[in-house]
């Protein structure tokens, strides 16, 4: 018989393998960032891209371009020498482009272009299809590819990433509320985090920031509006979880506004965002005490709640089977009603002396318990039997995603793979980063083809795509009649999106990869959008109070109208309708 010591080592080797993968990934990111940041002083800042037009430039145009390049080189060298004398941190780096010579791509450097913003499409590999081909029908391929990445993100997050986070919370013996605010929030907001990482380290533009802002508005307005429009019954909302999450969401917006106001993010500002989120997690760990303290004041304009608030409202779409069981369990409202009909007193009623008292209610588990695999669940790789044509089409559509996931990641919900959760966590992060990179790349190509700024694409399409897990979670719980959980899941995930999805990549870039550097926010319209986020919080609380703290279709219609107004105004600001807020995008032959 094997000794317990050998069994322990056997169970720990997947963790060691996962740590090794994380170390290699960090080394690759660090080496790539350091290589692109180092610029030799005698480097020629020219571009040797081939023109897509058949006509060659004239001699006068070549001479003009040469003079312009020489003047730009002299100006850049003068700026560099003055910065070295004053020892000031560099806040603007030359824009990196890729040149094609003989079919090979290699990086070259050029000085920052004045009076225009460098196009983000040049930070990615050159598209396989030219601009003329995209404008004449080829863009549909990029649109379908972007939609497919949304499906890939949703499947990887719900089926594998959240399952590995469940096991991590169980191994760390976290309480349910802290687990929901930390790891479960990371599971639902993983696409937003990966998008910001791509925007900071690869695209080097504001598409990640605009995606988080758009996702925040999408969650707090659009998702809750759809929940109200799709509900069949009126759900009563508990005021404490909504006011609690809205308060910390309001604080998060203020911290974000103070961070991006001067358009330069340094490591102390990024660290402040992470510390604020730690305070939020500590507050959730004392949720019961804070709730009793808040309700002891008897605030006149707030309703009197008879039921306790949810401890953790952040859920995933795949974990709702246990929520359904708890909703119809021995202490659920439906069961209490059945007990009352059978003669067993419900809470608040006088017991019948002729009947035995009911058993005491089950207490909430002290530690988080990971979800078990459903033995009756059908494998997504099996072809559905007696299915409709639409069902077969969707199965064939997502089959490559499921196949690659099953081939590269073990399902840590299964008993034989439960100790492999670190490996599943790392590989799922790789897949999320891959799908997010392709998504941002495709969205950037679409925006560049139509002439739409990257921030507008982030506020709309990227925000809707990365918010798919949160939307599915809220829609699924509202069908079970859990209005509090649906609303708090949408609001609570925004705190993680703003403080961690933005603060963590900014801190890694400015404190670890390039210590002392800065991350620039080029769009001035994002400051307006951030200020407008404050109005969404106030409007949500006021609309809920005016509607009697109920979730119904009228409530959903009002939020939907407010969401459309916000998106239209934010888009008009980014398009310089109300003034010159942003510089135009520089022309590009990508």
Give a description of the structure.
The model is unreliable at 1-10, 32-70, 79-111, 308-314, 316-349 and 359-364 (pLDDT under 50). It is globular, with a radius of gyration of 27 Å. A two-stranded antiparallel sheet has the order 1-2. It has a two-stranded antiparallel ribbon with strand order 3-6. A two-stranded antiparallel ribbon has the order 4-5. It has a domain at 128-299 and 379-574: Up-down Bundle (A middle domain of Talin 1). The chain has 590 residues and is mainly α. The termini are far apart. The chain is built from 20 helices and 6 strands. The chain has helices at residues 4-37, 59-86, 131-172, 176-181, 183-188, 190-203, 207-230, 239-260, 267-285, 287-295, 320-327, 333-341, 389-408, 421-450, 454-466, 468-479, 483-499, 503-513, 525-546, 553-574, and strands at residues 95-101, 104-110, 235-236, 264-265, 519-520, 550-551. Helices cover 62% and strands 4% of the residues.
What would you say about this model in short?
62% of the residues lie in helices and 4% in strands. The chain has 590 residues and is mostly helical.
Distance between the termini: 65 Å
Order of helices and strands: HHEEHHHHHEHEHHHHHHHHHHEHEH
| Strand proportion | under 5%
What characterizes the major β-sheet? 2 strands, antiparallel
The CATH H-level homologous superfamily of the domain at 128-299 and 379-574:
NCX, central ion-binding region
Helix content: 55-70%
Strand order of the largest sheet: 1-2
The assigned CATH architecture of the domain at 128-299 and 379-574 is Up-down Bundle
Radius of gyration: 27 Å
Could you list the spans in which at least 5 consecutive residues all have pLDDT below 50?
1-10, 32-70, 79-111, 308-314, 316-349, 359-364
Transmembrane segments: 139-157, 178-203, 209-234, 246-264, 270-287, 423-450, 456-478, 490-513, 525-543, 555-573
Biased composition (Basic and acidic residues): 72-87
Domain Sodium/calcium exchanger membrane region: 144-284, 421-571
Organism: Fopius arisanus
